[in-house]
Task: inverse folding
């Protein structure tokens, strides 16, 4: 088969690069598959790394600066490792009208996090989204990928406390990893 | 598969279902799923088994029933019996009610004759809440793919375009461009490679019509796209869907796989020479990618920045080929238009706005959820009849339609008909169908600031008026909301709204001033209260109390 | 004048003057041939035009939208207005917005006196900025042995990106982020001096309309830009196609 592939080896011997290779192969290493490949990378590793971007750029023959430009244009992509748990507060119109700001304030009160931040122990990330499509249930939030509607300041604090609470193991672990 | 096979599947599926005395439908669209409707479904199934009712009772997952805020929703006996806020514990009582006709607990019963249900007219949503979105057979039994087969076996491409033109359908993605005209342009654009794109980016932050259609009836969109492909001469389609809708993407993937294995997509569809394939492309969190040229740039793998038009995508779009771009709801209207004729469709709605429109009703209104209504219905009917009015006895203040590109319509215009031109005449737009109701607890300065903040952070940054203009306008609105603004700021704000509207490159910048403009027009008293008195009438903003202190600071 | 297939000769009116042009020319092309001035910033002959800065907006009779002269093709019978009260006001506002966006302090800038932004402002009578400055925190990248990138002066016109990709073929530059947070970057947002793709040709420096890209060792007001290479190189590219 004729492909655009350039022989480069993955940044590490992590088996998961095979998944990214798979997406690139499925698209015949076409430069226009860049966004699909970045989606796969983020799904696989949780975030985009410099090494990964370099690998994808070389494999798809897309200039470095363009890859970086694309990765930072789209807010869905992140270059920071996310926390073990994520809490996404919807700040779309319906949720704004129904008090999304007070929910954010409640999470900050409970965890000290502002939108876009992760706790130092890596247990929780607080994010915002512009409408998760559950406006009928506003205000809405997404906890670890599960949408929940009709959130109150009490219910969100409870979820956040749970996330932070049973993370003592993870806290120690991730401290260990950072050393 | 040919037309006879299609008819066979339809007959068989209907026969299978008619064997049951009772079909119990459980909503498994995202809204109800987030309230654990899957557990309700499992519980109902095991209850049916326990009672040995498997041969007369079928539990079926269906798409959105509309009243999302009251989910999980369950319906039986052809929607005569409906239940809300159902928990797994209610399963037994619901079975009692449906099978043995016993009264169910009051807190779960919904009156199925509510205006919310009876005031609707369903064309796009005709299968939502009726069929299992994960089974192609269910769609076929509901006359699915009949329109596509009719087109490819009985009509010439131009004949299809004619029906769409006759229907008077206008694009549901926001701008309301006549769909027939767009199809004609692409049809006439030579005989080379062409593409069809379905815009499922649904960027309006308060709208979920497209999501619901994709989750409840994905085959309808595929069929609409295939018909479009046949009509304009394209053999390849892309669905650009936002990544925030994982369930919609999953159901689309399932639907594409099923359609391919049944020969409804792929090569030689219906044993004719027509080939059509569909691929999904995921968005990645950029509102501007809903704009058609930005969307194309994104499918091509680049930064989603718009480019000046002309050339329009219909002439030169994806990889410089003629490209037809329509919205999800636009495509969803196509199969019924072909099945029942463009003439029929054009009898619904108003003179210049034909057919129905799906709205996502949300905010400070009793019944929040999804409704489909004929064009020409008044705002008052939507909000007070179908929507059930404002909760907790509060006063209506404004309704926002069209999202960040639209405007806030005040009480005095509640009786205008909902159509493209009337909404534009009061400074708003039809938009894609988001409709957010606000009462006296909403501050209109805050609302204007909210939308400007949205446009500022979604501006792609390519052109100067939008990139810097929205930022400057946002900062002024912030100063007003904090009580730090002067009369001068207000003048500058007005000037910038005009300039950004006229000078920006794409629709985002050109419409970004709309929410500000309409609030300036209809709620100047609220702006004045912030600027002159340092007071927020709704109590949302916290303007600096001491104006003097603010002036010294500024 | 010989024309390619499908290209027609048309007559149109620009600023009350009857002009003749080919249908593959833009309003700006024709206006320039007739010596009619239309202000521009992002466009540079020899590079692709992107219609981004909106300085060149003109009114065309029968269109309710303002159209960028740099990318709008001429048509038979067009009537174009280049200067009206409204257009002039918008152009001044556009310049004001640009000045307010980053930190433009002309007196200490290497291109003081040779800057496209500055000279346009003088020409259009923008002498003070009524809008609050946004004062972003942006950096100066002096890592390259011969050049400096001072993001305080960048107006995001993308000329550097286009010349590098379209003429030099290196595609060292691109934009990252979006909105006012957008910034021009080299490679994977690494210091310019570490760039693996930069050939050091300096074309980006020469096309940059402001003092954002300059040669090292220049004092305030010393940096002159040399753009004579562009028409020739872009012609060679056309021939090569
Ligand atoms: C900033 C911006 C965002 C848009 N977002 C969407 C969107 O999310 N979905 C959509 O269908 N159309 C959107 N549109 C409109 C599209 O550009 C385009 O007009 C539409 O997809 C055409 O389909 P239609 O004719 O069926 O409406 C947007 C336009 C602009 C300017
Ligand atoms: S109007 Fe805004 S979104 Fe559109 S091109 Fe200009 S900067 Fe980008
Ligand atoms: S560095 Fe210069 S050429 Fe490049 S975008 Fe900025 S102002 Fe334009
Ligand atoms: S606005 Fe929050 S889910 Fe739509
Ligand atoms: S010169 Fe035409 S838009 Fe910049």
Result:
């Amino acid at each position: 088969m004729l492909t655009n592939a350039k022989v480069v080896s993955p940044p590490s011997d992590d088996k998961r690069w095979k998944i990214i290779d798979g997406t690139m192969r499925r698209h015949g290493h076409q430069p226009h598959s860049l966004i699909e490949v970045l989606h796969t990378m983020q799904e696989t590793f949780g975030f985009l790394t410099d090494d990964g971007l370099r690998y994808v750029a070389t494999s798809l023959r897309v200039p470095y600066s363009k890859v970086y430009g694309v990765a930072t244009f789209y807010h869905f992509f992140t270059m920071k490792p996310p926390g073990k748990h994520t809490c996404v507060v919807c700040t779309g119109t319906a949720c704004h009208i129904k008090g999304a700001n007070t929910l954010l304030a409640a999470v900050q009160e409970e965890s000290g996090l502002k939108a876009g931040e992760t706790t130092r122990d890596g247990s929780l990330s607080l994010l915002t989204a512009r409408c998760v499509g559950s406006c009928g249930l506003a205000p809405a939030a997404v906890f670890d990928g599960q949408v929940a509607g009709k959130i109150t300041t009490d219910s969100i604090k409870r979820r956040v406390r749970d996330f932070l609470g049973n993370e003592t193991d993870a806290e120690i672990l991730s401290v260990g990893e950072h050393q | 598969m040919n037309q006879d096979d299609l008819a066979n599947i339809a007959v068989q599926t209907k026969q299978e279902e008619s064997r049951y005395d009772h079909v119990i439908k459980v909503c498994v669209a995202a809204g109800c799923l987030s309230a654990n409707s899957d557990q309700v479904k499992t519980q109902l199934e095991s209850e049916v088994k326990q009672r040995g009712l498997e041969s007369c009772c079928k539990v079926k997952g269906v798409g959105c029933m509309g009243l999302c805020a009251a989910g999980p929703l369950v319906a039986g006996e052809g929607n005569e019996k409906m239940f809300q806020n159902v928990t797994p514990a209610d399963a037994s009582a619901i079975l009692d009610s449906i099978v043995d006709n016993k009264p169910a607990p009051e807190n779960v019963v919904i009156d199925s004759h509510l205006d919310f249900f009876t005031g609707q007219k369903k064309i796009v949503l005709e299968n939502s809440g009726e069929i299992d979105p994960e089974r192609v057979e269910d769609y076929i039994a509901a006359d699915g793919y009949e329109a596509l087969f009719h087109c490819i076996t009985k009509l010439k491409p131009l004949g299809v375009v004619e029906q769409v033109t006759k229907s008077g359908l206008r694009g549901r993605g926001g701008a309301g461009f006549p769909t027939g005209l767009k199809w004609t342009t692409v049809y006439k654009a030579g005989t080379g490679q062409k593409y069809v794109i379905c815009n499922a980016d649904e960027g309006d932050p308060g709208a979920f019509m497209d999501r619901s259609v994709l989750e409840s009836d994905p085959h309808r969109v595929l069929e609409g796209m295939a018909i479009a492909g046949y009509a304009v001469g394209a053999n390849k389609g892309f669905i650009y869907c936002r990544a925030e809708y994982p369930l919609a993407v999953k159901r689309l993937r399932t639907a594409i796989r099923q359609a391919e294995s049944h020969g409804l997509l792929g090569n030689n569809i219906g044993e004719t020479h027509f080939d059509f394939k569909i691929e999904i492309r995921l968005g990645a969190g950029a509102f501007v990618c809903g704009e058609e040229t930005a969307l194309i740039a994104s499918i091509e793998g680049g930064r989603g920045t718009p480019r000046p038009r002309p050339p329009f995508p219909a002439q030169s779009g994806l990889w410089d080929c003629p490209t037809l771009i329509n919205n999800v709801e636009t495509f969803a209207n196509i199969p019924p238009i072909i099945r029942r004729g463009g003439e029929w469709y054009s009898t619904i709605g108003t003179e210049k706005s034909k057919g129905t429109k799906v709205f996502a009703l949300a905010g400070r209104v009793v019944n929040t959820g999804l409704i489909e209504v004929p064009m020409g219905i008044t705002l008052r009917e939507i909000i007070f009849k179908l929507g059930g009015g404002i909760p907790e006895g509060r006063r209506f203040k404004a309704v926002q339609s069209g999202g960040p590109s639209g405007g806030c319509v005040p009480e005095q215009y509640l009786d205008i008909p909902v159509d493209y031109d009337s909404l534009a005449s009061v400074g708003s737009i039809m938009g894609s169908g988001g409709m957010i109701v606000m009462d006296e607890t909403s501050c209109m300065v805050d609302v204007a600031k909210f939308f400007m903040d949205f446009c500022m952070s979604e501006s792609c940054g390519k052109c100067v008026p939008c990139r810097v203009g929205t930022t400057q306008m946002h900062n002024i609105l912030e100063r007003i909301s904090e009580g730090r603004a002067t009369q001068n700021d207000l003048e500058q704000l007005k000037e910038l709204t005009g300039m950004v509207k006229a000078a920006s490159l794409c629709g985002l910048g050109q419409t970004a001033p709309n929410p500000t403009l309409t609030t300036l027009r209809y709620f100047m008293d609220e702006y004045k209260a912030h600027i002159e008195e340092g007071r927020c009438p709704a109590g949302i903003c916290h303007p600096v109390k001491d104006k003097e202190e603010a002036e010294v600071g500024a | 004048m010989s024309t390619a297939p499908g290209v027609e000769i048309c007559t149109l009116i620009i600023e009350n003057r009857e002009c003749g042009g080919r249908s593959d020319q833009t309003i700006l092309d024709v206006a320039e041939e007739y010596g009619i001035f239309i202000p521009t910033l992002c466009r540079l002959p020899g590079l692709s035009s992107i219609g981004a800065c909106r300085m060149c907006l003109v009114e065309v009779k029968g269109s309710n939208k303002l159209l960028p002269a740099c990318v709008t093709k001429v048509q038979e019978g067009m009537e174009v207005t280049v200067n009206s009260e409204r257009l002039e006001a918008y152009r001044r506002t556009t310049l004001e917005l640009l000045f307010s966006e980053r930190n433009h302090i002309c007196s200490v800038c290497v291109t003081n006196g040779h800057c496209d932004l500055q000279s346009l402002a003088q020409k259009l009578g923008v002498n003070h900025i009524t809008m609050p400055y946004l004062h972003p925190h942006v950096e100066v990248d002096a890592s390259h042995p011969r050049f400096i990138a001072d993001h305080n002066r960048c107006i995001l016109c993308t000329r550097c990106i286009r010349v590098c990709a379209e003429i030099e073929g290196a595609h060292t530059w691109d934009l990252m982020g979006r909105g006012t947070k957008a910034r021009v970057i080299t490679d994977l947002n690494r210091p310019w001096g570490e760039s693996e793709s930069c050939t050091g040709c300096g074309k980006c420096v020469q096309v940059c309309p402001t003092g954002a890209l300059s040669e090292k060792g220049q004092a305030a007001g010393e940096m002159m830009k040399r753009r004579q290479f562009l028409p020739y190189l872009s012609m060679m590219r056309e021939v090569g196609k």
Remarks:
- Chain A touches chain C at residues 50, 53-54, 57, 63-69, 72-73 (CB under 8 Å).
- Residues 167-179 of chain A have pLDDT under 50 and may be disordered.
- The longest strand of chain A covers residues 85-90.
